[in-house]
Design a protein that fits this description.
alpha/beta; binds flavin mononucleotide; seven-stranded mixed beta sheet; TAT_signal; globular; Rossmann fold; Flavoprotein-like_sf; 193 residues
Length: 193
């Protein structure tokens, strides 16, 4: 919660008389968070839009910022053909770390809670998440995975990412069907963030 998003409820202010809890602007006009603010970021990768939709529902519920992980070479429909052993996703399956447009979200150090969303590919987090997990420090952050899939559960996908990350307090995650926006929002509301 904080000044990063849409929740404008008044709240107790521990800093004394004049402050309102709203954000200030720095010289460049960017928002400056108060040190006490607990900022939340929803990071997601989505090849065909399902995870993006769920991520927006989650972020809207939490008043959180969002960051889209993007592969430098976007995945085409052909790339995503899991019935073709020679497709890109098939060939990358074992151990690829696809290059990302931007590995570290803007303002990363300022977020103490990060929700990480991805599609399930063969029971695991989509490959760009490997690059993301290995390429960032999660030290001091609470990390909550979520995913979309046709039918598979989240399985060990979050634990595998936690292993690649090497740090951070990774929580148990949740799996959603495409379009399950209300379910995702109520899950987010129940996280106690
Ligand atoms: C390469 C590939 C592998 C997939 N493997 C699984 C799977 O193992 N289990 C499953 O339920 N869905 C699987 N799916 C379906 C996706 O998880 C599902 O469509 C997801 O919602 C896509 O999210 P997106 O639109 O954000 O990319 C797979 C899709 C692709 C492209």
């Amino acid at each position: 919660a904080g000044c990063s998003g849409g929740q404008d409820e008044p709240r107790a202010d521990a800093h004394g008389s004049a402050a309102t809890g709203s954000s200030q602007m720095d010289e460049a006009g960017g928002a400056v968070r108060e040190a006490s603010d607990a900022a939340t970021l929803v990071v997601y990768f989505s090849a065909t839009g399902n995870t993006a939709g769920i991520a927006q529902a989650v972020a809207g519920q939490l008043g959180a910022d969002t960051f889209a992980i993007e592969a430098s070479v976007p995945y085409t429909d052909e790339d995503l053909n899991y019935n073709d052993d020679s497709s890109r996703t098939s060939q990358e399956r074992a151990d690829a770390r696809p290059e990302l447009v931007q590995v570290t979200p803007d303002g990363w150090d300022g977020y103490d809670t990060v929700l990480v969303g991805y599609p399930i590919w063969w029971g695991e987090a989509a490959w760009p998440l490997r690059t993301f997990a290995e390429g960032n420090s999660f030290d001091g952050k609470t990390v909550v995975p979520f995913c979309t899939s046709t039918s598979s559960g989240i399985g060990r996908s979050g634990e595998l990412l936690a292993g690649l990350a090497g740090d951070g307090e990774w929580q148990e995650g949740e799996r959603f069907s495409a379009g399950a926006f209300e379910e995702a929002a109520s899950w987010a509301a129940g996280l106690g963030l």
